[in-house]
Amino acid sequence: xxxxxxxxxxxxxxxxxxxxxxxxxxxxxxxxxxxxxxxxxxxxxxxxxxxxxxxxxxxxxxxxxxxxxxxxxxxxxxxxxxxxxxxxxxxxxxxxxxxxxxxxxxxxxxxxxxxxxxxxxxxxxxxxxxxxxxxxxxxxxxxxxxxxxxxxxxxxxxxxxxxxxxxxxxxxxxxxxxxxxxxxxxxxxxxxxxxxxxxxxxxxxxxxxxxxxxxxxxxxxxxxxxxxxxxxxxxxxxxxxxxxxxxxxxxxxxxxxxxxxxxxxxxxxxxxxxxxxxxxxxxxxxxxxxxxxxxxxxxxxxxxxxxxxxxxxxxxxxxxxxxxxxxxxxxxxxxxxxxxxxxxxxxxxxxxxxxxxxxxxxxxxxxxxxxxxxxxxxxxxxxxxxxxxxxxxxxxxxxxxxxxxxxxxxxxxxxxxxxxxxxxxxxxxxxxxxxxxxxxxxxxxxxxxxxxxxxxxxxxxxxxxxxxxxxxxxxxxxxxxxxxxxxxxxxxxxxxxxxxxxxxx
Length: 505
Description:
Elements: H1 6-24, E1 28-33, H2 44-50, H3 54-57, H4 68-72, H5 75-86, E2 89-96, E3 102-113, E4 119-128, H6 130-175, H7 180-207, E5 216-218, H8 220-234, E6 239-244, E7 252-254, H9 256-273, E8 278-287, E9 296-303, H10 310-313, H11 333-343, E10 347-352, E11 358-365, E12 388-392, H12 398-408, E13 412-416, H13 419-427, E14 434-438, H14 447-457, E15 463-467, H15 472-476, E16 481-483, H16 488-499
Parallel strand pairs: 6-8, 12-13, 12-14, 14-15, 15-16
Antiparallel strand pairs: 1-4, 2-3, 3-4, 5-7, 8-9, 9-11, 10-11
Helix pairs in contact: 6-7, 7-11, 8-9, 9-11, 13-14
């Protein structure tokens, strides 16, 4: 019998077997780093995935596996620091092979310490998941195409209805343009159809984050009663509308227009959930944060409708998700509500059960800023003037319409079809009091570029921009903006404001 202790030999054997196991793994790159990030061991999987042999890489710094962009941001160093401080670093990202090609990696870094707790290195495991990522991308693309199909069907239905309403109004006006009362009704119907189309686009763009919310301090005691009147117009006569609005509600930070759109979306959903009638309740309450960090106001819309099964309720805020038949809805209503609430700094939650109705709660942050009191916006006749306006608009239908409308109000309008034409005309000495330009136009000089050049070359010449897309880039650069579709009265108001010299302080 040997007098030597067999334990060390067993440990050595175990270590060898473990090393053989690690070396034999080819699906994972498993290797060690010293405390400074230099490679101290290398398995077969690392060679297969990264392309370096053991002799080539031992002693080299592991940052060579990272992209140039990640190295510039010191991601390798931050990864080791996080692993040391938190006990693990785990991320996905692009990594480089020896030949310079990229692969999508799932990376884990664990710190290794001696019995005294001193850091002696790091264990690093990398897996090539490029194929999985490609499969996920294909799946997302398939889901996206399915969503686009749902969206197209819903939007086509809604916009065809709006175009039909506008077309009908115009045709009837052409047949009998004399009767003032009848003409007024038809014109109002056409304008309402335009307003509905604008609301639908705002709803879509708010969800897609292409239209930022315009946050301001809002007194809900002014806004919610007006919303209640609109809700009563949305629902049917067999639905009773109730309100539980306390006298004292904190002012909130939100976009009042998008709040109205959100509540109307919730009212429309509640209406559709109560095909045989029921009760819709609009409520609100102050909610004080227990920690004193953030007070909120909760606005709730509740119905007594059919409710939702848990698997449906869990997807209710998903974009384009709808339980309605194709063409009966876009699936954007609740996602607009959610997107609006999050962009306001709040949240949206949904509570529902089959046969027990649905409640959607919007939480909006309390603000310390005093709300601006508003007497409402009345529809007025546009007031014209005699200013010389250069209008850059490439749309062959819209350009002549706006030109005619402004000329009828007394303005002298020169219409060009591109930003470059407008810039050339100004540089040749064309005398204008204001430039009105669409942002999206063909060629190198779009509306925003035109506005920047005018500001640089002719700083005293005011510019107004218009767009059917996001207004944010123009707003950020200080240009007044009109979102399409706009009313002529809105355009004439913007013209007067742009031409009014700032008050001297």
